[in-house]
Task: inverse folding
């Protein structure tokens, strides 16, 4: 298993967007220094809260700046909402980013759920057609990457004549593609048939849900005659390491508890419903409960390693654990120390986990 970062400017609660972007870049540079394999940069909006501002993460712009500040870490969009962008533009920007990053670029895509606050209706995108728009856009983008010369495209949503993107991708045949796969089985199956990376668990999914989605991916790949690898699975989780379990909780509590209460009152609390205690009451979903239940991996290095390892085996295995970045829940100094402890004491032991070996012969 390798480590990656899921970077998301939204949710930090800063008084200016500039501060949030600067924190994103600090975390990406730190992850690069500590040997993280990848960073996936979100492209989404953030609602105001208190004195904070709404911001939009323009992933490609931040990726290109981060590439100039780092040495080896791979940089992906997590994700580009395809209904908002013409496929020709997505493909062209991807190839330019591929060159500007020196071949470290990855193109992650998805729909529009949760993107840019509540602006979906203002942009005129009907929820019922978003998934179809994504699937057609993927066909268009893949043609852009692989066509030998100009081609025409006449779909239901996207059109063009004499299409020929320049420059051609630096990585051949095209940059690695990744799909947000926490939605419908159709989305997972399309990713599997194409051999795309699967991005799982943005909502902090329990292990059994990751397993269900992973099994769906492997079955779809098998049906398509493609030999898939669970190393293609990326799973997001919140991880925080300190000297002891209690110290880790104490360092997080003052910011995590208010954030959790806001999530309970908000429109997007469905992720918490997957962690509901037996009593079935949302008020029982507390910070301490979620630590004990495993939604947050929090504690000293040994405790965090055991939590990750248990989750890995219960989920059916995955290749990369994506750490949800600081999100304003700790100071920069605490986050940096947590990440350094993780890299020094946990990462070497995680490297021993290989899903293709550990789950070889597992039933699909």
Result:
């Amino acid at each position: 298993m390798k480590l990656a970062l899921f970077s998301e400017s939204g949710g930090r609660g800063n008084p200016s967007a500039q501060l949030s972007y600067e924190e994103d870049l600090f975390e990406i540079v730190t992850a690069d220094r500590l040997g993280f394999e990848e960073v996936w940069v979100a492209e989404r909006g953030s609602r105001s809260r208190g004195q904070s501002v709404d911001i939009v993460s323009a992933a490609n712009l931040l990726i290109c700046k981060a590439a100039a500040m780092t040495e080896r870490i791979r940089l992906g969009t997590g994700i580009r909402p395809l209904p908002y962008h013409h496929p020709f533009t997505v493909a062209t920007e991807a190839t330019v980013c591929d060159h500007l990053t020196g071949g470290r670029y990855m193109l992650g895509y998805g729909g529009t759920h949760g993107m840019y606050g509540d602006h979906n209706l203002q942009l005129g995108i009907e929820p019922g057609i978003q998934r179809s728009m994504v699937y057609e856009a993927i066909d268009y983008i893949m043609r852009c990457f692989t066509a030998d010369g100009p081609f025409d495209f006449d779909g239901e949503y996207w059109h063009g004549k004499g299409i020929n993107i320049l420059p051609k991708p630096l990585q051949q045949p095209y940059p690695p593609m990744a799909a947000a796969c926490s939605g419908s089985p159709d989305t997972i199956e399309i990713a599997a048939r194409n051999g795309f990376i699967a991005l799982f668990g943005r909502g902090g999914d329990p292990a059994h849900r990751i397993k269900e989605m992973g099994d769906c991916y492997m079955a779809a790949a098998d049906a398509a005659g493609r030999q898939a690898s669970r190393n293609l699975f990326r799973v997001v989780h919140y991880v925080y390491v300190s000297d002891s379990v209690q110290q880790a909780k104490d360092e997080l509590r003052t910011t995590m508890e208010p954030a959790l209460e806001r999530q309970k009152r908000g429109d997007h609390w469905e992720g918490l419903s997957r962690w509901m205690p037996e009593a079935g009451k949302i008020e029982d979903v507390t910070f301490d409960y979620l630590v004990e239940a495993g939604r947050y991996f929090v504690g000293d290095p040994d405790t965090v390693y055991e939590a990750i390892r248990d989750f890995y085996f219960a989920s059916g295995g995955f290749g990369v654990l994506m750490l949800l970045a600081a999100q304003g829940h700790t100071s920069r100094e605490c986050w940096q120390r947590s990440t350094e402890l993780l890299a020094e004491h946990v990462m070497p032991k995680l490297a021993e986990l290989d899903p293709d070996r550990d789950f070889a012969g597992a039933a699909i």
In short: The mean pLDDT is 89. The longest strand covers residues 233-241. The two ends are 21 Å apart (CA to CA). The chain has twelve helices and twelve strands.
